[in-house]
Amino acid sequence: MKKIFVLLLILVLPMSLYAKKDKKEICITFDELPAAAGFHEVDRDAVNYLILQSLKKHEVKALGFVVGQQIEESFDIIGQWLNEGHKLGNMTFSNQDFHQLGIEQFIEDVQQGEKALAPMVEGFGQKTKYFRYPFMHYGNTVEKKNQLELYLDSKQYHVVPATVVIDDYLYNMTLDKMGKEPDTTPYFALMNEYLNYIIDEIEASELLAKEMLGRSCPQILNLRANRINAVFLDELLGAIKSQGYTFISVDKALKDKIFHKPEAYFGSLGVSYLEMLKQSNPDFLPAE
Q1: Can you give the pTM of this predicted structure?
Q2: What's the whole-number mean pLDDT along residues 213-232?
């Protein structure tokens, strides 16, 4: 069945993706570990087993962001990520929207998340602290945004944005509606549609980088730890690799100068990092 899919994918992907003129690198990240909440019951063990198996097959070292209140019931799952050599970051304790909380409430949520996660990552020798904003919401007022940035800086957090933000929850809902044993035809149609959607979003981010920088930049792909990414990750990583990408660590990605540029984006939507830079300064001219 995979051979059939590969043929379909080659037919529908735009030919421009096959050009390999620039060095193309991508970092894979997962939100809401151990598993994103959904409208249906989530099998955390199965989701993480499939994700970790696919990462291992493609020799990818990923970064997962953990919701602290879920750790107690999933110590073994979190431990598996660390055992496999992946890194973990803090996604607050409750994964609540920063735009819906006061600054004091949100900082407390960050602190609780760190308290829950720190013993595990420190036990595996991970010294760097990573943070991701739930829903990619960086603050809906200047004061809140600046206050939280100062707090995270004071705690030596590496805030990890995403250049490719995926609405995978919509596709995940479609997959869940198919049941535990979906029919082959709609299942592979969904896979084909989903993977092409992600490849298109990566290409759009590449084009935006070239527009803003005159070059490629490391891409940081944002996925959720959910069923659709568990069952399709093997094919997704293969498709990304076929476009000439090399998988890199988050530390290598964040060394690029673009991730050290000031931005002042304010908005209700969780947009990509390059969009944040562009919208906060439409005349963006990087000082390389």
Answers
A1: 0.90
A2: 96
